From TrEMBL:
<dbReference type="GO" id="GO:0003824">
    <property type="term" value="F:catalytic activity"/>
</dbReference>
<dbReference type="InterPro" id="IPR003719">
    <property type="entry name" value="Phenazine_PhzF-like"/>
</dbReference>
<dbReference type="Pfam" id="PF02567">
    <property type="entry name" value="PhzC-PhzF"/>
</dbReference>
<protein>
    <recommendedName>
        <fullName>PhzF family phenazine biosynthesis protein</fullName>
    </recommendedName>
</protein>
Length: 220
């Protein structure tokens, strides 16, 4: 088995929960795309990151079934592990900052893979949802406290690759933030926490605006 580290990304304030992420620090040990895809499938995490240049922050991201140009929780996790001011992904350059124990990345909603953002009337409705059959990628959400920007969410990738529900998804949170145009505190899955905020005006609009996504990272 190729050497890799496992992190938990988007932990709650007590360091619990978070979405597990595999990181292969020595990307050169798996140089080709087919080998990386096979390893990501074997590991079985929602995403696996290959680090191709730790100094530049050059990374390559895979789910068990496909390569992604950008994804939120892999970028937050890789940024925490590498301690770099920026990451380079196929979608573009992702800036990084640390603040109060959180790692923040800034990316554009246009980089995120398509998601169906489906609003429900209450957190209880979201909690009660069964896992849907494979098909569309659904981000189910409801306001916990609209005035305070607190959201309850669950994510159903619908890919049929063994990941029936994603514990914490930065890209979907980024898309929801872009749609609502405001900072959010999202509780997802069993209790993972994702923080988001639009970057101030001057950095684009709509899906081209920069959105910050932040969270806590721990070793699994």
């Amino acid at each position: 088995m190729t050497d890799h580290e496992v992190l938990r990304v988007f932990c709650d304030p007590g360091g619990r929960h978070g979405n597990e992420l595999a990181v292969v620090r020595d990307g050169a040990s798996v140089p080709d795309e087919s080998g990386r895809q096979a390893l990501a499938r074997e590991l079985g995490f929602s995403e696996t990151v290959f680090v191709d240049d730790p100094d530049r922050g050059l990374i390559d991201i895979y789910t068990p079934t496909l390569r992604l140009p950008f994804a939120g929780h892999p970028c937050v996790g890789a940024a925490w592990l590498l301690g770099v001011p920026r990451l380079v992904t196929p979608a573009g350059e992702v800036t990084v900052r640390d603040a109060d124990g959180l790692v923040w990345i800034a990316a554009r909603a246009a980089w995120a893979p398509p998601r169906t953002l489906r609003r429900y009337g209450s957190p209880a409705e979201v909690d009660a949802l069964p896992v849907p059959p494979p098909g569309e990628w659904v981000y189910a959400w409801a306001w916990q406290d609209e005035a305070d920007g607190r959201v309850r969410a669950r994510a159903f990738p619908g890919r049929g690759d063994g990941i029936d529900e994603d514990e914490a998804t930065g890209a979907a949170a980024l898309l929801l933030t872009a749609r609502l145009g405001r900072a959010l505190t999202i509780t997802q899955g069993r209790g993972s926490q994702i923080l988001t905020a639009p970057v101030p005006a001057g950095t684009g609009s709509g899906n081209h605006q920069l959105i910050e996504v932040g969270g806590r990272v721990r070793r699994a």
